[in-house]
Queue: 4 jobs
Job 1
Amino acid sequence: MTYFPISIPFVAYCLCLCVCYTQARLHHHLHHNHLDHENKHMHLLLSPSYPPYKCNGDGIFDVREFGAIGDGIEDDTNAFKEAWDCACQSQSQSQSQTNSPILLVPHGYSFIIQFTMFTGPCQSPIIIQVDGTLMAPDGPKSWSKNNIHRWLVFYRIDHLTIKGKGLIDGRGQQWWNLPCQPHKAMRFLMCTNLTLQEFKIKDSPHFNLRFDRCISVHIESIFIVAPASSPNTDGIHIENTKDVQIYNSIISNGDDCVSIGTGCYDVEVKNITCLHGHGISIGSLGIHNSHALVSNITVSDSTIKHTKNGVRIKTWQGGYGAVNQVTYNNILMENVRNPIIIDQFYCPTKQCSNQTSAVEIYDVKYNNIKGTYNVRSPPVHIGCSNQTPCRNIILSKVELFPVKGQPALDAFCWNAFTETETITVPPIHCSLDKTL
Ligand SMILES: *[C@@H]1O[C@H](CO)[C@@H](O)[C@H](O)[C@H]1NC(C)=O
Ligand SMILES: *[C@@H]1O[C@H](CO)[C@@H](O)[C@H](O)[C@H]1NC(C)=O
Ligand SMILES: *[C@@H]1O[C@H](CO)[C@@H](O)[C@H](O)[C@H]1NC(C)=O
Ligand SMILES: *[C@@H]1O[C@H](CO)[C@@H](O)[C@H](O)[C@H]1NC(C)=O
């Protein structure tokens, strides 16, 4: 995400807004409590065979069987919670996925769901089959009290698969103009053996997918979309997460396409398309003199179009730790402002003082990076810290041309040991003398 300076007035404004919403919602809640109650009562009378919902069945837990309406108006949160509890407690007959309990979000329905925490561990591998639409409440006023900071949270689950041709609709429009966009669409904490496949996520109020302290995450064929102008709608953010594959996906948004934070290693990003937004980022790392480690990251066979950056590594001054073993392979750039960028002076406020320590950057390889750039800044920018130069930066088959009719720009380089294995366009002559 883009870092915004946090000032006291800003925090105060944010707090005040949140309090305001809480009050608005409280009022709303009190007003509707009676109605809610009446609805439940009616429901009981009309469908005596349903509640109390039993956890029996054939391993398919259709949220409608738990009272979800799916008309895009009613709040279906409780049905999801009950369906999850049953599915999670259910034991599959074998370890094979074909027998895993399935929480089914059926096609043809739109379910409104408030903040929900899907908590493990579960009895067996579990599938959430999203064939229909899952919608967030429509804007701050409809958001449930106390929980505007979270929406769909998945916690401590092993072997969770979320798949299907459906849609997760974050309905972020009303949040984007506010100084705080408090919640992400989907957040995964301490999950292991996680698979996300096929579905689409749109208009998250903030990050679309965020992973913290997860192990073994496989993302495939998903589609993330938010307007180019939507702030902080990062596509996929991972942090302290290892063994990650992100394949065959399309991300069109207003901030980083994929961002990789500290503590991530063994990450493979392959065949993805990034549109608008800020490209694929490692960092920012080392904020407030913190320690950061990122290692063994490969990005390959991908297309980056009309973005602010292509492939970027950004660190704040004053941090420590390292970024190493990074490979960018076969990347097509189309009209990207900064296709290749290493920035060890990351400072969006422009008010950072020079510091002596830095998160070290070494063993970074760029191979077959081709396409066009927009000439507002150099196509290759390698800006490394004064005390800790970047080492072993290898560029091969880099060919970047200005968008038609624009003048070509030189590469920018500061304090880096680079090596070019082929002729590059633009030429990169910025290597420090290795005898220094
Ligand atoms: C992930 O699944 C594998 C194979 O089923 C299992 O051995 C491993 O323990 C799981 N990982 C974690 C961190 O639970
Ligand atoms: C790459 O991903 C796209 C979806 O963005 C898919 O249509 C295509 O088949 C994938 N290519 C390969 C080689 O898997
Ligand atoms: C780097 O990560 C890949 C998976 O993306 C893994 O197969 C490989 O073993 C890792 N390499 C090292 C040196 O750990
Ligand atoms: C920080 O270092 C850079 C590079 O050496 C230099 O251009 C800049 O003037 C310095 N800034 C301050 C505030 O000393």
Job 2
Amino acid sequence: MKLRNGLGLVLVVAAGWLAVTAATPPKSSKGDATRGKYLVSIMGCGDCHTPGTFYGAPDMKRWLSGSELGWNGPWGVVHPANLTSDMETGIGKWSEDDIVKAIQTGVRPDGRLLAPIMPWQTFANATKEDAHAIAAYLKTLPPVKHRLLPLQPPGVKPEGACMIFPPPPAWDAPRTAPKGAGH
Ligand code: HEC
């Protein structure tokens, strides 16, 4: 009897441990995905990165899977990327640290600097904790296959629909040469 009670206790402890383990996010996650979801909802990520949002009809089935609407300026033509966990067309292969680096310094894992349309210069002000929370949330997004046009260098006739940014007027000219895609 004593032995059976002892065994029961071990089983209860083990079951408790399993329940705790199942509820804890993967060890690699440094961020709070619930807070990340909230931050993404107020930081405008979906405006640019979800098809249809700028037309008043976001396609929630393809939430954050990138947009066909390009941004054409001195950096060439860029498209808001697919942020879902799809391995081929999204950022499924990126680590959370890769995502934090991109949203806070504009640098992708391949070293390319993101165009200033992606507001990483503003997101650089987020705390590390919040940046990791955003990354943790993006990692929970189900994969959506949605391939966007690749970066088009400046001067190439743009493919597809895009918003056009003419060269900056003198009073608003950047003080340094425009950095971004392709530089
Ligand atoms: C004003 C539009 C806009 C907003 C708002 C915006 N992005 Fe972006 N984002 C872009 C564009 C455009 C690109 C592609 C830039 C390029 O390729 O140079 C991009 C690229 C990215 C990338 C790089 C992905 C890749 O495959 O290269 C990440 C990660 C990203 N955005 C995350 C976010 C997150 C998270 C938010 C909200 C916190 C956000 N973005 C808000 C426009 C936006």
Job 3
Amino acid sequence: MRYRFVLGAAPLVVLASCATGSGSVASEGAQSMAADYQSFDQSFVGSVQPVVNGYCTGCHGGERPRARLDLTAFENTAQVVAAMDVWDHVRQRLEAGEMPPEGRPQPSAEERQEVISWIESLSDYEAQRNSGDPNPVP
Ligand code: HEC
């Protein structure tokens, strides 16, 4: 597969146009190609957060989150990207049907798949975005 790189494009122009919320997206995106998480943010709020808040944060939140995984700490896509390895585990556990643990309320197959697909798409998007990075982090 070949990707088109947009090296040296002015990231600030794009970021300014989508700087609707906090400034965190801008600081995350500045590291390589401009990141545009707008549609990811929409599905994060619309599809991912409801599943996580409904089925995960009872254990992965609060004072002593299980496995020291606090899923309440993630409020937008940029924060997920900053912890992509953690979310890769989330995807794996969901795919394996291992989380939530047996005997606990389970999301529907559709809800589960939506979260898995969201993580996969984001991961692909990041790989593509960073493939133009002259100094990739190993
Ligand atoms: C009833 C409590 C409970 C619920 C609900 C729960 N988990 Fe867990 N989770 C645990 C425990 C306990 C562990 C540590 C043991 C293990 O790894 O199986 C864990 C481990 C994990 C890990 C591994 C963390 C790591 O460092 O690799 C991930 C990822 C995870 N959970 C994701 C989820 C997701 C996503 C949901 C919701 C869909 C969820 N969990 C719901 C109790 C829970």
Job 4
Amino acid sequence: MKKEQKEERRETKRANQARIAQMILEAGAISKNELAERLGFSMPTVLQHVKGLVESGYVTESGEYGSTGGRKAKLLSVVGDMGFAAGMDITENHISYVLVDLQRELIKRAKIRLPFSQSFSYYEAMGNWLQVFLEQAGVERGKILGIGISLPGIVDSREKLLVHSHVLHAENMSFKRFEGLVGYPCEADSDAGGAAYAELAGEEKDAVYLSLNDTVGGALYLNQKWYTGSDSQSARFGHMVIEKNGRPCYCRGKGCLDAYCSARALRGEDKNLEEFFEKVRARETGYRRRLEEYLDSLALAVAQLHILFGCDIVLGGQAAGYLRDFQRELDRRVAEYDRLDSDTSFFRIGKCGAEASAYGMAIRFVNRFFKEL
Ligand SMILES: [Zn+2]
């Protein structure tokens, strides 16, 4: 056999093993028969690779199917504590830490108060708290696959660079230095990118993710890939103009979506959204009206995005969770703006909660680990 053919065969074998491992991860628990059926592999191929995965310690055989008679099939699942990854979500005054295991279960979380500054001492404090967090979790250093960092702004992931953040008042901040400091592989992305990954990675359908945090951002998931545009310039939905000569925006433009649909625009002078919605529920003067204006602007944006992309639109970020109670109202308004399509089932509020950004950054390492097995 020629050298190239041997090489090719080895590559195919490796790819098949990775596909089997990924399917076990996705399924949570799956039998060998189901694996063969879903992947279109022969039983000997499945058996051979499963044996390898079990021997390596990443997969275990456990549990049994329900009692429908006959021989009970053992189920395969990923061994959670064979590897871990952490995610950090950086905001103006806090850092949230999460730890996930190889099953992508969120096993530990913490939030500390640490006002942001573009300085070396901030890197050090970030790293020290990370170390404390990992030590408290009792995880061996060698089992950490990597650390994902979510940042509120425009991020060049390839360069691990925070290009610009209005919320943090920061520019051109490189996280390569942080990586050197902590000694783990690190990745950085925008908070919208992190949360969108938690929400959409692995899905088959295209989707536009609209993130409603203190700034408005987003992500595009097309053909099962992330479309970032040239120089990570895509999906800057916060600066779509929804009203000519409208409210001023921090980009010095006028009428940008950010000035109408950020969590900050919704809560106004209130400390947080919880406080704002309490006042809405208590029918305090002016609050219901502000909410209605917010819903109207948001509906316009959702309809515009649907007209542009013609795919699912998913809402995420701090404000999204609070909008569940107003979904019907939002649906009605979206239908009014998207006159060519009265069906609003294309749009939904994301299922991932407040830690979506940090969680999404962490599970990237786990998914990649299984892809590259
Ligand atoms: Zn703007």
